[in-house]
Amino acid sequence: RMEEFDMVVLSVGLTPHPAAQKLAAVCGIDTDQWGFVSNPPFKMVETSREGIYTCGVFQSPKDIPETVGQASAAAGAAAALLSEVRGTLLTKAVYPEEREIAAEEPRIGVFVCHCGVNIAGVIDVAQVSEFARTLPGVVYADHYTFTCATDSLSAMRQVIEEHHLNRVVVASCSPRTHEPLFQDNLRQAGLNKYLFEMANIRDQDSWVHQGDPARATAKAKELVKMAVGRAGVLEPLHEFPFPVAQRALVLGGGLAGLVAALTIAKAGYRVYLPDIQERFGGSLAHKKHFTLEGHAIQPYMQQLIRQVENHPDIRWWPNARMTSFSGHVGSFRSKLEFPDNQWEIHYGAAVIATGAVEYQPTEYLYGEHPRVMTQVGMENLLVDNPDELGEAPTCVMIQCVGSRSPEHPYCSRVCCGEAVRNALKLKEIRPRAKVFILYRDIRTYGLKEIYYKKARDLGVQFIRFEPERPPEVAADGEGLRITVFDQNLKAPIRLQADYLTLSAAIRPHPVSQEIAQLFKLPLDADGFFMEAHQKLKPLDFASSGIFLCGLAHSPKFVEESIAQAQGAAARALGILAQEAMYVGGAVAAVDARKCIICLTCMRTCPYGVPRVDHGEGVIAIDQAACHGCGNCASACPRKAIELMHHRDKQFL
User: Fold this and answer.
1) Would you tell me which of 22, 175, 473, 561 could form a disulfide with 179, CB atoms 3.0–4.6 Å apart?
2) Which DSSP string do the residues of 279-291 spell out, in sequence order?
3) Which helix (H) or strand (E) holds 583?
4) Neighbours of 264 (CB within 10 A)
5) Which pLDDT does position 645 carry in this prediction?
């Protein structure tokens, strides 16, 4: 059969850069058979040579979020190693004295960015800059290939000086990624950083109007016109310092929580580590776990627990529950409750690592037949009681139990690997065993795919079924009778099994809901914690100073949880390393005459700043904690809240 297509897109694989092997040889680090870095067990960012770390696709094929998170993990590992010499080579930026512009008329400079072809491929940037020159208050306008490039920033500072600019507009990409860079450039030029305005003509224009360049250019002009209009009324704002509580809170005593706590403590900072359970270990506390690669997890876990319990900078509590949370990045406060005591802690950053739990199936005779178990049960049987298996057992495994259903559409990600791992272990200790894996789709992904091939080579049989026709299970004496409609053969297959193993889903830990409400943190539709941005901030919450890692974020393999925990710790270290932070240039203020305590501001504030002042009978706002985002002012039905400039620092 022949078909014609207008375009063919090839989804190609990832291989190490040709220069990577040379770099590895120069550094003296080992690589695997494909040329990727060879890592020690459980240490994704470490190499065979101490003190040399790796991250990104050189470690193994991965997507952008994993790459960004792993980069932070490598930085965290390096920070722990260099803790004794922290700050010895630090050079503080020196800025010129800020120019006084109060008596000046607005002199606005507009810098339009090509962003390579991201913007210039759709928008006529030369036409936009010409238009900007005609706007009131604009004395300079031009376009640059990359406005954020070092030479462009230097040119911008020169233009500010030559044209005596007192306000700057950059029309380019998103302020989420580049506003701090341009604001810092203004400071270097002697201007207040708040005299800067940004027009997003990429995300809000060129990317969404690629098919209509003329109208996209017209829209870019309007966006620039609005930015110039706002820039004309900007006033200098001033920030004031407050001391950072150089201590961290890590919530969760599982694998990710322990790694995060130890990474921060090794970097030289105090860590508070409360856990609701009686002993550390989380989801790995009660099982003899070995990885797909064959590495035993319990020796590593026990060593990790000993290190945490004996570290002088980690204060840990079992059976502890958090009951309050307040404050802001750099200065949070919480209360911990114990069966017979209470404790208040003050810290500058928090890492949420509350973990997850295994789904307890209600299908396939689980809990009704003694030989129906989850992959965790099978793994414990293989390690603790292999003699029960007999010489040639028949074992059937069913995938996606509790996952990829209408109620829980997400993939639990590790189930395929766990099934292959247990199948390989079973074939290792009982070579005559028959193993059938019934699946909808199967993927061990990345470098782990080699183990799927190994399982097939050893005779493990994979049978694909349709979601609409799941396997049927019935008891047959001590054994089980399983009927599955093979999607490839288009015929039913009947299997007599000695054991049935269910690849059960990973569910969020019940305590995550409680923590989400207490900290005002977002959960996704499945109940896992949701990061601020999947690619730009995969380890951060939208609330500054709070980070996430491990199974609390999403299902993942052991080594991925470890790397993410190191990354979250590194993000927290970026805050703890500062002796002081600065309060933003604008804050919200409440007009007590209009406030009716409807609590709308409390529900809309992403930082939990507004609170009820019972003494005054109105809403009070901690101005040191306010980020000046304006959410509360916009939402208030009585217009009782407005943003105001910091005129002084009395509130500090």
Assistant:
1) 175
2) SS-GGGTTS--B-
3) strand 580-583
4) 31
5) 61
Q: Which strand ranges, in their side-by-side order, compose the sheet holding 314-317? A: 314-317, 270-274, 247-251, 349-352, 546-548
Question: Is it the case that residue 649 has pLDDT exceeding 60?
Answer: no
Q: Give the number of other CB atoms < 10 A from CB of residue 180.
A: 11
Segment 492-533, tens digit of pLDDT: 999 999 999 999 999 999 999 999 999 989 999 999 999 988
Q: How high is the pLDDT of residue 285?
A: 66
Residue 507: both structure tokens together: 């569910």
pLDDT interval class at 584 (50, 70, 90): low
Supply 108's token pair: 């606005």
Radius of gyration of the chain (CA): 29
Q: What is the pLDDT of residue 145?
A: 95
Q: Cα–Cα distance between 496 and 479 in angstroms, integer?
A: 7
* Angle at alpha carbon of residue 70, lines to 68 and 71, rounded to 5°: 65
The stretch 259-283 carries a mean pLDDT of 90
E strands within 102-195? 108-113, 138-144, 167-172
- CA distances in angstroms from 391 to 319, 394, 460, listed in the order given: 44, 10, 16
How far does the chain reach from its first CA to its final CA, in angstroms? 76
Task: Say if CB 44 and CB 560 are below 8 A apart.
Answer: yes
Separation of alpha carbons 324 and 160, rounded Å: 48
Contacts 24+ apart (CB under 8 A), 310-315: 311/262, 311/265, 311/266, 313/265, 313/268, 313/269, 313/270, 313/271, 314/261, 314/262, 314/265, 314/270, 314/271, 314/273, 315/270, 315/271, 315/272, 315/273
Residues in a beta bridge with 439: 464
In angstroms, rounded to a whole number, what is the distance separating the alpha carbons of residues 80 and 68? 19
Average pLDDT, the chain: 91
Q: Is 194 helix (H, G, I), strand (E, B) or coil?
A: helix
Q: For the residues of 405-453, what is the DSSP string, one character each?
A: SSSS-S--SSHHHHHHHHHHHHHHH-TT-EEEEEESS----GGGHHHHH
Q: What is the mean pLDDT of residues 262-287?
A: 86
For the stretch 286-322, pLDDT in tens is 666 789 998 999 999 999 999 999 999 999 998 999 9
Torsions phi, psi of 96, nearest 5? -70, 165
Distance CA 298, CA 306 (A): 12
Does residue 650 surpass a pLDDT of 70?
Answer: no
Chain centre distance of CA 9: 30
∠ CA 519-524-529, nearest 5°, is 45
How many whole angstroms separate alpha carbon 650 and alpha carbon 652? 5
How does pLDDT run across 161-202, given as a tens digit for each residue? 999 999 999 999 998 889 999 999 999 999 999 999 999 999
* Secondary structure class of 515 (helix, strand, coil): helix
Structure tokens at 441: 């789709």
Nearest to 403 by CA among 392, 395, 411, 413: 411
In tens, the pLDDT along 598-622 reads 999 888 887 778 888 766 678 888 7
